[in-house]
Amino acid sequence: MAKLSKTVQSLLTASLGLPGMQELLAAEPPEEGIDYRYTHYNEDPLPDSKLASGDPQRYTINSHQLRWLKNLSNRFSLTLDYLHETMSGSSP
Prior knowledge:
The chain is α+β, with helices and mostly antiparallel strands. Helix content is 17%, strand content 37%. It is elongated.
């Protein structure tokens, strides 16, 4: 392992005094498991009084989000995120 210079050692030691650093080092590993979230968004159609031409329907968005997390040790974890999103419609 490479030896750190005195300057780098001093900077690392000083950084431990920054707010939140002690909590970060003492933090528990994240919770393992699988999370799934589905989101559906649908904008209201344009009123006929504001529609010059075309379809009054606006955006429709469906989003599927999946996250898998596995702790490898107290310091390392493996995370897999997947997002599938479909959109249709248009802006005015």
